[in-house]
Amino acid sequence: MDAPELGSKVRRIIEKEPVWVSTAVVWEMLIKKGIGKLKIPGNVDQQLKDEGFHILDIKLDHVMALEKLEHHHADPFDRIQIAQAKTERFTFITKDKAIQKYSGLDILSSPG
């Protein structure tokens, strides 16, 4: 993966471990693509699969976890990803300081 902004530690982990991308990420990307804020050529989900990412669908237990989620962050796309990571016990890679405030969330801080 050629993404120097992630930092060497994060890149090493991504190269070795399966990386899950929430359906919410794809949803948000398509919204931003549609309004011209993000340039993505071609089919987004196919590109993610071609790069070896796994897609994590939003399930009812992820949505139900939102009820108990602290309110450090208002963005609904971020909140569902946090709920998914907590429910699935996944490590969340982010540079967002607000997301890093959540208890019970395994965080890997990205310097990018």
H-E string: HEHHEHHEE
Give the second-level CATH assignment, the architecture: 3-Layer(aba) Sandwich
Beta-strand residue percentage? 5-15%
What is the CATH topology? Answer: Rossmann fold
CATH class: Alpha Beta
Number of domains: 1
Give the low-pLDDT segments: none
Termini, distance in Å? 14 Å
CATH superfamily: 5'-nuclease
Helix content: 40-55%
- What structural category arises from helix and sheet content? alpha/beta
Q: Got a strand count?
A: 4
Major beta sheet summary: 2 strands, parallel
What would your notes on this structure say?
- By secondary structure, this protein is an alpha/beta fold.
- It has a single domain (4-109), classed as 3-Layer(aba) Sandwich (Rossmann fold), CATH 3.40.50.1010.
- It has helices spanning 8-16, 23-34, 44-50, 60-65, 76-88; strands at 20-22, 54-56, 92-94, 107-109.
- A two-stranded parallel ribbon has the order 1-2.
- The chain starts with 7 loop residues before the first helix and ends with a strand.
Question: Short description, anyone?
Answer:
The chain is α/β, with parallel strands linked by helices and 112 residues long. The protein has five helices and four strands.
